[in-house]
Amino acid sequence: MLGSLRSEDGKGAVRMQDRYDTHIDDLWSALTDPDRLVRWLGEVTGDLRPGGEFRAHFFGSGWKGTGRVQTCEPPHRLLLVTQDADEPDEHVIEVTLTADGGQTILVLEERGMPLDQLHAYGAGVQVHVEDLAAHLAGQERCDMQQRWAELMPAYKDLATNVG
What we know:
The chain is α+β, with helices and mostly antiparallel strands. It has a single domain, classed as Alpha-D-Glucose-1,6-Bisphosphate, Chain A, domain 4 (2-Layer Sandwich), CATH 3.30.530.
């Protein structure tokens, strides 16, 4: 799996799509339950209802920031707005899930990142999605830095066509 990159209103966007051998409710739980998020992504605390605000720390990438839940339509759609303490711009993360028999299709888009850093964001988002797949398969997270470095050349190539 390799995501796609694009420019949208002068900012970058990353899109990932993958299919998981699990039911939609299980995948939704892995994406929204803090007790499960901590196993593959990081710590998320706060009000996770629509309009609620939360704090997050992603273990692999080290990202720390705040966010708010814009839309939550279980088990199909989640729209978050996040902000890194070091960046003035907000990012939008949109997740949609579609049941397909005993499997679930995930589409994740993150929008709002600087175009000159889009390749790095693309590789990072992919590592997080791969860690989600590992969690669902009962496996451990990968070595974030190693996997990110492996993915960077491919995402640099993708980013040359964006802008």
